[in-house]
Amino acid sequence: MFDRILVANRGEIALRILRTAREMGIETVAVYSDFDQRALHVRMAHQAIALGGELPSESYLVGEKILDAAKRSGAQAIHPGYGFLAENAAFAQAVMDAGLAWIGPPPNAIEVMGDKIISRRAMKDAGVPLVPGLTDAVDDVAEAIAAAEEIGYPVAIKAAAGGGGKGIRIVRDPAEMDTAFRTASGEAVSAFGDGRLYIERYLDQPRHIEIQVLFDAHGDAVHLGERECSIQRRHQKLIEECPSVVIDEEMREKMGEVALQAGHAVKYEGAGTVEFLWSGGEFFFLEMNTRLQVEHPVTEMVTGIDLVREQLRVASGEPLGYGQDAIEMRGHSIEVRINAEDTAAGFVPSVGTVKNLRFPGGAGVRIDSCLYRGMEVGLAYDPMLAKVIVHAHDRDTAIRRMRRVLEELNVSGVRISAPAALAVLEESAFQEGDFDTHFLEALDLSKPHGNEEQLAAAVAAIYRRHRAADRALAVSGAARKGWRERSRAMTSAYSQAAGRPSAGGDA
Amino acid sequence: MKYFVKVNGHDHEVVLTERLGELLVEVDGEPMDIVYEEVDSLGQVLAITGEGAAFGVSIEGDSQRAGITIAGHFYDIEIEDERERAAHAAARAAGAGGGSVKSVMPGVVVSLLVAEGDEVEEGQPLLVLEAMKMQNEIVAPVAGAVVRIHASEGEAVSAGAKLVDLKAAEEA
What we know:
The complex is a heterodimer. Chain A has helices at 11-23, 40-44, 63-73, 89-97, 107-114, 116-125, 141-151, 177-192, 249-265, 296-303, 307-315, 395-408, 418-425, 428-431, 439-442, 453-473, 477-497, and strands spanning 4-7, 27-32, 47-50, 77-79, 101-102, 155-159, 169-171, 197-201, 207-215, 221-233, 236-242, 270-279, 282-289, 332-339, 341-342, 348-349, 352-353, 357-358, 365-369, 376-377, 384-392, 410-411.
């Protein structure tokens, strides 16, 4: 095992990695930009090395600076976390070329999975199911109907040059094809100047299900079940859970097998995630994330496996040492991302200085956070400030626990995404497991969800009155100086009377 | 003292009266039995209403605009006393649909498309604001004249910052 590792990241994920490393007796090296000088990850590491520069592009994204910091600190390995350089194959190679261990998959696996077209081809060859469809354009209605028969209804007709929902038609029946084809083609011509259309299966009520996998460097691998991340907006996840309500034991085995197949196909090592779109009992490969994911804690809570620990073991060459039958899933876990954003105003970023901070507690609660009082939240970095994770024996209890936890959580100084998550958790459709990837976008978050408007009005008025009274009572600088000097003189007189030397100064 | 409090866009009236050292609270015409205790200087408030319904309330903001969190839910507050309400109403009447165009999100002003004194049409782009890596055109809400420009190109602006003052054109 390594004696010292460098964590090439910031925020909650840097803390997450530092924590496990410290527990394993591994010394930790943090790196930081000028903006992050006071950040928690800098304070919690054994060593901290300044990268210089305010922006990510001047600090965390500069491979040479990270490698230089590793050299100076004597670190033997680099953990990239997620984001920044985590999925940069060239950097992974540079780390290995510098004689250091890369705590992540081999550069080739990163490269193959990072390219949409190459990865789809590799997955097709490996027998991993893809959304059925044709890559070539169809020329006319007859050809479209023939293609649809082959793919299976419902199908989506999409503009080859498309985007933004234009030129898309959903066809559930061959009789609808004629009209749909002509209108889609017309729309595509007027929108993109290109009427070419292609056809793929349309997925009704798609859900985002992903499988966590772990590979060692000796060809052994296990999967750790699924996570459901359907509560998302513009591909930004808000709530994740493990297990998913739509996945039973049989489906889990099937998807797990396919995920392992995908990993073996690229000679994967370490922790990774294979993302699928799931619809009506079928599932299709989306992409593989060749890193630790934000939502990994829900898997840790349910399986009891520390994924960072496993990453470190694999990267240092240890075999996994256990097989699939050792993986047990217990209870239910939910994670909510706490982002600095105003969810009532369309999830626009919120900036400011964190003032009040109250974290929830109690049984089955885990908080992965980089928040501290006085922390500046700016626009240059990721808006995710914290994740709250709960674990309970079943989903219903986990939802109740998360609602309780979000009611306890309080962050002031910036707006946070917690009220939006709370609104989702309060929806009966979510509680019943009846949702898909469109759920969050369809939810009206601009309307208030709280029921204490009159109380809020009263408190706001009283608070304002108190502040006005404070200002009226505030003493002038001169008066304060006079009082201070008088009180000092009296303190000094008392202590002399008691036979002690004068306190004087600032005592 | 009477306060007009807008909570999440809904109007409420709060009357605070001090009698024999005690604060009497009336909300929307009904007396509210409330114990109000500030826990710290960071905006933490304990409120107990009626027969002992306890709430941990967090409040932040200034005398006119505040944010309150109660049990995880956020309440956006705009508050005016009678004098401010009259002043604001007068200002609105004078502006007659003009006023300030504000930034709805923090961002950076990429380019200014108008100059002070320009006549603009309703919907005419005034400036380009980059936020969340996307460029957004900020348009004139009404036709009128550009009275004042508060931002310069390359400047970072916060949410709610004034960008451009417009004077609405006279109704024909």
